Amino acid sequence: MAHRQNGGMPERPAVARFGPFEADLVTGELRRNGLPVALQRQPFRLLGALLDRPGELVTHESLRRTLWADGTFVAFERGLTSAMRKVREALGDRADRPAYIETLPGRGYRFIAPVVFGSHRVAPPMPAVGTPRRLGWIAALLLLGVALGGRTSSPAVANSQLEAALSLSSYACRLKSEGRFDEALTVIRQAHALAPGSARITAEVGFFLHAARQYEAELPMLRLAIAQDSRSVDAWLHLGLGYARRAEFGEAIAALERARALAPGDPRVERWLAWARTSTGVTSLTPSRRNLNTRSQGARISLS
Q1: Closest by alpha carbon to 135, among 184, 66, 74, 193?
Q2: Which of 75, 119, 171, 206 stands 20 to 30 A from 242 (CA)?
Q3: Domains, the chain, ranges and CATH?
Q4: pLDDT tens profile 111-133
């Protein structure tokens, strides 16, 4: 397995930690701030091979011998590219601005972030979604934020709390995808309590307020996100969608154009801006459902 060192050295401890992530090299699990991150078996094996040699060049040929069986050479390059893309998506990494994995064109990859190996997870496995233990864990996380310094100006504390808030945001999105809008709103508000100054989290509160049908509070929260950071793409995007949900397309287009100016080529912004520009007078709220009444207060819009 990838946690064995080179040259016949004893095995490293099972858990590799880097940034907010921990990878269990025995069970094949990846977590961020204690929350599971979905990553398929082959991409995880690729990540494990790089973690086994942090700071070193891991060549394409070495990866082929380690991860791809004999006779798969023809599909190797395509498979490697696909696996690396999934690893980067799971880590939120970028090939052009790597924080974790550096590409050496034509040669291989190098894991460039500091790695600490240990024998135990930082946090235990998460209980099932929606159980009282889940809510208790979230409350404990909030208390931990206070114990670490609360809303202080310490960069380390602020970063820690923001990372935790983003993890809660991911969980809230999962609840929303399951139609559990009130629970999702509760979780995203807890995220906001951890990072009240984050325009992204504030904007997501507004988005989840709509999902929970608390329409009167939606736009004020979205405007607050803009006030917190006028260069937040997420804030302008959510504000634009907030106006679109009310069929106020002039305001929606203006907000989405601000988002586009800040993030040219963002597929979410391009999608909804193109739709909004063609939707004045059109009864629709999502590009795929043209028969919905945009003026219906109960209509919802999806960012997927």
Answers
A1: 184
A2: 171
A3: 6-118 (1.10.10.10), 132-277 (1.25.40.10)
A4: 988 888 875 443 333 333 343 34
